[in-house]
Specification:
heterodimer, A: 272 residues, alpha/beta, Rossmann fold, four-stranded antiparallel sheet, 10 strands, globular, disordered N terminus, B: 435 residues, mainly alpha, ABC transporter involved in vitamin B12 uptake, BtuC, Arc Repressor Mutant, subunit A, 2 domains, two-stranded antiparallel ribbon, 19 helices, 2 strands, 72% helix
Chain lengths: 272, 435
Amino acid sequence: MPRVHAGNALPRGAEHDDAAPLSIHDLTVAWDRKPVLWDVDLDVPEGVLACIVGPNGAGKSTLIKACLDLVPAVSGEVRVFGKPYRRHRKRVGYVPQRESVDWSFPVSALDVVAMGTYGRLGWLRPLGATQKRQAMEALDRVGLADHASRQISQLSGGQQQRVFLARALVQDADLYLMDEPFASVDAATEQAIVDVLRQLKSQGKTLVVVHHDLQTVPDYFDWAILLNMRVVAAGPVEETFTAEALRNTYGGRLTLLEQAASALGRLGSGGA
Amino acid sequence: MIATGDIVDVLLLREYNTALVVLSTAMLGFAAGCAGTLLLLRKRALLGDVVSHATFPGVVGAFIVMQAMGLDGKHLPGLLVGATASGLAAAWATSALRKATGLKNDAIMGIVLGASFGAGVAMMAIAQGLPGGNQAGLESFIYGKTASMVRDDAIMIGIGTLGVITISTLLCKEFRLLCFDEAFGCSIGRPMTLFDGVLMFVAVAVIVLGLQAVGLILIIALLIIPASAARFWTDRFTWTMCSAGVIGAASGWIGSTISALEAKLPAGAVIVLVCATCFMVSMLAGTRHGLIRRWWRQWRLSRRVLRQHLLRAMHERSPEGTLGVDTLVSMRSWTPGEVRTALRRALGSGDVTQMPDGWRLTEQGRTSGEQIVRNHRLWELFLIHHADIAPSHVDRDADLVEHVLDSQLVARLESLLDASAETPESPHPLEGGAS
């Protein structure tokens, strides 16, 4: 795997902060040999509400999934509170993309939220009153307490998104990774979700959120990661969210990087 | 002609051999319903078909090996071990081929199913050539042959069913997570691959147990049909599994009873036909998603919409006055027939009275009409002031929404629009002249 140096958040060779909730070291991820993330290197400090922005195919979801060990890394590593992810699973909450599941599945909103307690519950043990109460409380926090027994297909898109958020709340984590929680939700839901995110931040939690609406970034977030296969900029919003950095992120990829990635991809699929 | 006494005898398991078959197929049906639900919710329904066809080379292979070792080639447990091995191998091959080639799932399944069943048929020719090898009877695994079942088979199926129930109960929560959101399961550190393996093993076990009773071609029906039927009755994961089990068990029981009474009918086929009948009944009468329920609700909604249109039209035109059918027809795009139907029903429910020169709202009809007009106008005002829609366009939108506004939504509209208890003026000219 060729190593391409492309503007990282940290200067090469800089020390990583061991206590950082999320610390990514030279991470490279490839789908079928075609790289989607190149040399991502950054620390997310404690207590920030951070967004990941970038164009389609920039690797935003992949970055989240790589942090959770859901996709294998070609090289580099991710540390959560100074340890590999598998050692600190219980300190991390995850909100996947809404489209990643089949919402006609025969479960109620409460059933889905209760899945957030499975991590602590251990297997073979059935859900008890405690878990159900915790799930109810989380549903209440996102304003869906009276929808608890609804089958999930009867919920609107925004409500489904809030069910996923409630499931992450039940995980009672210190670091939250969220994949497009604002995707196709109505204005009221967006406000409800933002309120919950701010609440979590005020409790000292760290949040990393994949976001697609650039206009709301300065309003909602205090930290930003501008991503397009490599990290264009990462840091406090007022420093990183500049017109130039955005142009670098969205205005035409580094063509050389793109071409090299495609070439590697063709190699992977048998050199067509 | 079958005597009533015979039917009762068979249903109540009074005859030993029939009782054995009926009980075994009922247990098998239950296990298949549970396992089928898991396969279906995991979106792997057709993998069951691949596995069942792939058991055939395992059966024939086990026969050849046992014969070559000088054992009884038709020793059933031996044959079933062979079937399990080749079934699991096919399930593994399917996922391995998908990962290695990136071909689409349906293509891969077609390849594995065809190749493995073809291998089985070819191996039959070898089995025939073996000295002293009487392979006759191996074909019964293709179509199933309940008549050949003995007490040991029933015990085996019983143990298998208990195993399926135990595993499904213990791992219920994990299977639910696996089928609904595998990635989330991985993120919290659950061994999802292990659970997936257990799920596949349960499915293969049920298929192998069903080979004798239903045969490898039709066992897929026993897995998929009860599970699909169950979805019409419930929206809960556990209940889907239980109902599928019950539907499967009932189909096994009734199907093998029919086949016991009319010996020419093969049990496997009859069981599957009973399953299909259960599916039809569930599709129509299911209490959650059945078609009858859906039709009934649509019919009720259309009745309510028609009534509200009538009351609103009459109230907007003239709350106290008498109106003719022609006037009402001119007020919106509906046919004179619809208006007469609406009036006839409204007369029955006491919303209108018939006068010599037309129709008039009763006190009750006026109150309801007032309410409907108010909801309609509140929604129009909301659209104009909060959704930036031109006044000339709001009428049709409100026309749809007014029927679904419940008291909670109306209360929110009122507070948002700061509306008094009075009915607001219409924001646009009313059709057919304002009142």
